[in-house]
Structure formats: structure tokens, C-alpha cells
Design a protein that fits this description.
Glyco_trans_2-like; 337 residues; alpha/beta; membrane; 10 helices; transmembrane; 7 strands; glycosyltransferase; binds guanosine-5'-diphosphate; binds magnesium ion; transmembrane helix
């Protein structure tokens, strides 16, 4: 039987951990056709998380706990993954948060996708059946959506719809064991997730997205903040550039895009037309966004970026499909391929 280890970082999550252990071991694991194990990675919590996990590991032999050495979310995952591979002999590893934002009922479809041949499974909020919390403020939804779109664009990956989710399952052989985990970038920040994703996507022969209904946090506040977000975007850009082949393509696509825009502009000028399509799209989208979500500077900025994406993303997508991948597909940003 395939052994799937859930690596679950927990920092001051005592109440969440107690109920999570029960829900997983009692309700979810028995429904899944794999040897399911839970590995909690604590970071010297001060609220008794470690003790609760310790108790659980005595009660259930498929629950384990370790302490991470270095601080930071990335290190929690790396320590957990190494332990899961070396000590628990995992065949696959599922990354999952302890705070119920990844509802336990979604473990089963993730594992099933793996059991039916996927090497990398992404819990996706941006495909049919997936969602972000309804309670989220419009600005938060916009940041998540546009941030994700931004990373898709700089990494030139339009096949995957959710590149920033923290709910992912990877096969060990061929995917995780080919990655030097301790050398992942930004392990002290949330941004490391982009590097892990980037490398896993390269190694995986079959990647699938499974819908995830992302829940809001039940207790306390998230540790994610603006600083983490900027670091995440920065790393995405660095990886996009580091990947020279993609970078060259990006440059070629960008340059021809520039030429088309420039020639188009000149053409329209000569025809006696002063307006230009990109100039029409932007104000329309920004007005639409402020009417829908409220007129704040954040929304205006998001609207502006979105307008840019409305032009850039379809253009890149079409050029890529026609000339680079040479497989014509109609963009389906919100659907599974
Ligand atoms: N072990 C460990 N866990 C962490 C650390 N930072 C966050 N976590 C856990 O990682 C998960 C995600 O953190 P959270 O603050 O909810 O981030 P968000 O869901 O991305 O906003 C939760 O289960 C946290 O308890 C850390 O430095 N070490
Ligand atoms: Mg969370």
C-alpha cells in the first residue's frame, strides 16, 4: 500500500491540532485507500501544541511529531519532508496547514489523484469547484487572485491555475527526491513555496489540479503579511529570469508584442484614429472594479494591473500556443484543462 505522509507545520495551534488529529485519524483516513500518516512539525510553540501532538502520537501510531531546527515556515516543511522520506519512508507527501484552512475533507481527492497516477497534485482555488472564503474582503480576494495571476505570468505557466496554494501533494520518487530541499530559496519566508512549486513542476511527469475550497482561519491571525507577499513576488521574478529558456521566450514574446503594439499604434494614427485599444481597456476595467469592489487606491491599483493582464495574458497565451507550444487551445482560466 502506498504510504502518504501529511506534513503539517503547527506554530501555536494547540486547539486546532487537537481537533485536526481526531478529524483526520477518525473521519478521513479510514475512507482513503492508502497508508495515511500525519507528521506534525512544531516550532517550539508556547501554547502546548507540542504536548498535544505528543499525546496524539502516543494514542495513534500513525501520528508523529518533530521539532524543527531553523525557524521559518519553509524550514518546517523541509524538516518534515526529510523526516517523512528518511524515517517514515513516505511514497508521497501532502503539505497541509493545521488551521483548517485546508479542510480535511479535501485530503481524500488529493490522495486519490495521486493513486490514479499523478506525481504532483495541486489543491486549486481557481478551478471549477474550488474557491476562496466568501467572508474575505474584496481587497483580499483581489490580492490573492492578481498575485496568483502575476506569478503565472512571470513563470509563464498558464496551465496551472493556482500557483500560490499551500495544499499540494508530491510523489517522493522522481519529484521530491530530486530536489535539494535545504537549498530551496527563502526557506525562512512563505516565498519558498514558489521555488518548491517551480522545481516540483519541472520534475513531475503528470501534474493535476484538484478543487480546494479554501476556508478562513478559525482562530487567531495569519502570519502572512505584505512583507511575505513582496518576497513571494520577488522570488517568482527571479525564478522566471533564472530559467533562461523561458526568459528568452519571454523576451521574444514581449518584443514582438511591443512591435505589434507600436506598429498598431502608428497604423491607427495614420488612419486618423487617436484612441487605441489598450487605452480603452484600462479605464473601462478600472471603473468596473471600483464600482464592484469600492473606490479605494488598492482596488484602483488592482484594476489597473488587471487591465494590463487583460491585454498581456491573452496575448502571451495566444502567441505561446500558436508559435511556441504549437498546440492551439482556447484559454480557460477558470476551468480545468
Ligand atoms: N512549525 C512552524 N509552523 C508554522 C510557522 N509559521 C506558520 N506555521 C504554521 O503553518 C501554517 C500556515 O500558517 P498561517 O499563518 O495560517 O499562514 P496562511 O494560511 O498562509 O495565512 C499554520 O498551520 C501555522 O501554524 C513556523 O515558523 N513554523
Ligand atoms: Mg492559515
Amino acid at each position: 500500500m502506498e504510504k502518504v505522509v501529511i506534513v503539517m507545520p503547527a506554530w501555536n495551534e494547540v486547539e486546532n491540532i487537537k481537533s485536526m488529529v481526531e478529524v483526520l485519524t477518525q473521519d478521513e483516513f479510514p475512507k482513503i485507500g492508502a497508508d495515511m500518516q500525519l507528521l506534525i512539525v512544531d516550532n517550539h510553540s508556547t501554547d502546548g501544541t507540542a504536548e498535544a501532538a505528543e499525546d496524539a502520537s502516543k494514542k495513534y501510531n500513525n501520528v508523529h511529531i518533530i521539532q524543527q531546527k531553523n525557524s521559518g515556515l519553509g524550514w518546517a516543511y523541509v524538516s518534515g519532508m526529510q523526516y517523512a522520506i528518511d524515517e517514515l519512508k513516505a511514497d508521497a507527501i501532502l503539505e497541509m496547514d493545521a488551521d483548517f484552512q485546508h479542510p480535511p475533507r479535501f485530503v481524500k481527492p488529493m490522495v486519490e489523484a495521486y493513486l490514479s497516477g499523478a506525481e504532483y497534485v495541486i489543491g486549486s482555488r481557481y478551478i471549477e469547484g474550488g474557491s476562496v472564503p466568501k467572508e474575505w474582503a474584496a481587497s483580499r480576494k483581489a490580492i490573492s487572485f492578481f498575485g496568483n495571476l502575476f506569478i503565472r505570468t512571470v513563470l509563464l505557466n498558464f496551465k496551472i491555475h493556482d500557483l500560490t496554494t499551500g495544499f499540494r501533494l508530491s510523489k517522493v520518487r522522481g519529484v521530491l527526491d530530486k530536489i535539494e530541499l535545504v537549498k530551496l530559496r527563502d526557506l525562512d519566508k512563505f516565498a519558498y513555496k514558489v521555488d518548491l512549486l517551480y522545481q516540483s513542476l519541472k520534475n513531475s511527469k503528470k501534474t493535476v489540479e484538484v478543487p480546494l475550497e479554501f476556508a478562513s482561519r478559525t482562530k487567531d491571525k495569519s502570519k502572512f503579511n505584505w512583507k511575505e507577499m513582496v518576497a513571494t513576488f520577488k522570488l517568482a521574478i527571479i525564478l522566471g529570469i533564472k530559467d533562461k529558456q523561458r526568459f528568452i521566450k519571454f523576451g521574444v514574446v514581449g518584443f514582438t508584442g511591443f512591435l505589434v503594439n507600436y506598429l498598431g499604434l502608428e497604423f491607427l494614427k495614420r488612419m486618423g484614429l487617436t484612441t487605441y485599444w489598450a487605452v480603452i481597456v484600462q479605464p473601462l476595467v478600472v471603473n468596473g472594479a471600483t464600482t464592484l469592489f469600492g473606490d479605494t487606491s488598492l482596488i484602483r491599483l488592482a484594476g489597473l494591473l488587471f487591465a494590463l493582464f487583460l491585454v498581456v495574458v491573452p496575448y502571451n497565451y495566444i502567441v505561446y500556443n500558436l508559435f511556441i507550444w504549437r498546440t492551439w487551445k482556447i484559454p480557460k482560466f477558470f476551468k480545468r484543462d
